[in-house]
Specification:
Blueprint: H1 2-15, E1 24-30, E2 33-41, E3 46-50, E4 67-70, H2 76-79, E5 82-101, E6 110-112, E7 117-134, E8 140-162, E9 175-190, E10 193-204, E11 218-227
Amino acid sequence: MTSIITLFGCKGLKDNPKFAFADGVYHSRVQGKKAQVYIENTEDSVIVYALKKGWQRLSLKASSLPKQSYPQKANAETIRANRYWQNGFDVDILTIPLKFRPSAPSFPRQFSNNLNGAVYLGFRNDTYRLSYDRNPIGQINQKIKHYGISAGIITGLGATAMNPYVTSNQIAIEYDGMIWSKGAAVIMGIDNFTFGIIGGIDHLLDKNSVYWLYNGKPYLGLAVGLNLN
């Protein structure tokens, strides 16, 4: 199941415009100063339009805006790197394939690998580095590197193994209990790969919650993300 989620998750991330240098408004530096620009991708180049302050209230025409087209010529100016970034609200579905739980009374610290899911809400910054290099036969090749970082909160449902060992022998059966997770997360993205660290708390949603050693106790989790916006 984890492999299937990873495969389809990677496809979703690859197809999502957030992980591509798509047309839109970005922050950048124009003549050494922070400014907003509009990126337009064509078949063989990237056109950068410098937006004026208060552009949201103005009626703009592309022909009236200062613009820069990449690549231009095979010279040093073409080869330089340019950085563009966007900030915004982030909504993800996270899977938590691994949790580390500190030691509890009469029970050592442990890793658990029950599959858990959570909804993530947070603030995100995505940065794109556009650059060009020249190959040995003089052709110009485009390179785009992407990385993002996001911080926010999570909530979701999952499962945990219930047995006599994790209840101090208060129950005599073994079953998978349903849990509710909540907490905070930091999510990192490098190109199409997204992962994160979660600090959370689990609550067992049945009558044996009073016996479960980890009920309401903190854990540290590894998350894999599937972006929704």
